[in-house]
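Subject: mismatched residue count in predicted assembly?

I count 656 residues in my input, but I want to confirm that the predicted structure covers every chain. Input:
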Amino acid sequence: MEQSLLVVDNLHVSFHTPFGDAYAVRGVSFNINHGEVVGLVGETGCGKSVTGRSILGLVPHPGEMTEGHIHFDGKNLPELNDREMQLIRGKRIAMIFQDPTTALNPVFTIGQQISYVVKQHSELTGAELENRTISLLDDVGLPAPASLLDIYPHQLSGGMQQRVMIAMALSSDPDLLIADEPTTALDVTIQAQILELLTTLQSDRNISILLITHNLGIVAETCQRVVVLYAGRVVEQGDVRAIFHRPQHPYTRGLLAALPIPGSRGSDLNVIPGSVPSGLDPEAGCAFAPRCAFVMDICKRDQPLDYEVGIEHQAACFLHDKAEGQEV
Amino acid sequence: MNEKMMSPLVEIRNLSMEFVRRGGQIGGHVQRIRAVDNVQLAINRGETMGVVGESGCGKTTLGRCLLRLIEPVAGEVIFDGYNILAMSPSSLRSLRREMQLLFQNPFSSLNPRMNVLNLVAEPLRTHSKMQKDQLAAKVETLLVEVGMSAEHLKRFPHQISGGQAQRVALARALALNPKFLVLDEPTSALDVSVQAQIINLLIELQRRHGLTYMFISHDLGVVQHISDRIAVMYLGQIVELALSEDIFNSAKHPYTQALLSSTPIPDPDKTGERIILEGTVPNPANPPTGCRFHTRCPFVMDICSKEEPKRSSVSDGHWAACHLLNSD
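Triage response: the counts match. Full output below for your records.
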């Protein structure tokens, strides 16, 4: 079997706060194969962005990765020193963020910012550098790319700025692109353009993409595999069709049923009562137990394991324990 | 039923709103941005009118003009028989009880230095002369109405979750028994599972009190779930108006069709044909001639850049402003 490009194994990240440690990520494991688009999905505070940043060693202060391995192409990333990490971060693994207006530097031109990144990863200078910059802008579908070189970020719309960010991320031909809510700040018609661009780039260049989002619609349209996070843990993962057509974890089911979709007018939406726990004082059992409609005694005491519920489809729920639960 | 009951609760006639932007230097040029352009719309008693469009289309400005929070440059707004725009400040003040506004982000609309009790009591103190214990009892009733309880009275906004904060904002809006609520993206800042709670609550409150809503959102899924009728806006104008079902099943305006197909559907097997619009929304200070959508329209014809399309009736209560509907 082909080796995965990225293997995240038992990742733990804590934030040291004055109120005690907040456990943002508590044992997340998943992998990404070559050329695969994996969706990392969950609600606010579930640890999806922190997981994405941990891969690049970019956990913001006062956060700290306390446990786990991140194997990329055979290397364990947390063990690398800064120099070795530089050869991977931005070069082999690139990242784009939610808000392109804050990710781009307002006082440098688009040309300066992209060519700076190109120079970090190549020996190009002068006209060659400029041509490479123009071709990158062209690749992401920006019209009249040569005219953009002397333009400042504020002169571009949000969608164009996000295209510039993608051009920058692609400048080193990365193997993996981490896209953290890349379209959340954009309008739906522009979102459709950016998602189309990401899908095209993925199939043309065979890049793997980790798409971090809260939008289940986007996941359904772009990803091949889905990892569902809740309160810092993976509650379910599997093939996109399995997750959307046969969700096995009560949280995934609840989330899908809570979405207003065409044709649902007038009916009550399914509601998951309560709200997401804070992570400051993690509960002993399943984190979803306080909001779960199928809660059992064991859920409040023990952590559920990952149960196989289909072909390469796991759910962390005691309902799938043959001894404990009955199939629902 | 008398005539007044049959007439629409809110009637908007030829409403236009302009913002003036001055250039950088002294004596710099003045730009007039027409955020709402000649809008006509009637909202019936007890119905939910959805207003949908992308950022900058004027949907929020329209909502604010209705409540006269900003002064439109032309047109009339008739609320329950009164012309709001012609009213004196004092008579407007008493009418204001009957129309309320719910904002997108409850944490910026709620004063962080007031606790829940004072937040909900504030409109009552302003508009009525209630005794202290009467006031406390009323606040509690309102909290129960929105699914909260007396235990939250002493909490401050930062001590409650986003969903609870939006409930408090809703309790404030309901305090004076309004007839009409403008809901401006009330669930955009919330997670999916919490969004479902708020939408269900809004529908329930409407049934209980016979409220009339104007529901503004960029999310078509949410809008169609809650609305009886939907108005689609583009660059300050309504381009299509129809029953919620008709918008989803037989949209006639190419912009509505593009908006629908850009909205990601949470079903991996329904990712069929997408109409991807090119470019971005033009600058509203300098809108395109003729049909404002012609620069991005996949079906553009010669006439579109020359003549502004008139409303064409599609079926009873369904119209769209597009030359395609007259061409054959």
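Chain B touches chain A through 46 residues (CB under 8 Å). Marking this ticket as 'not a bug'.
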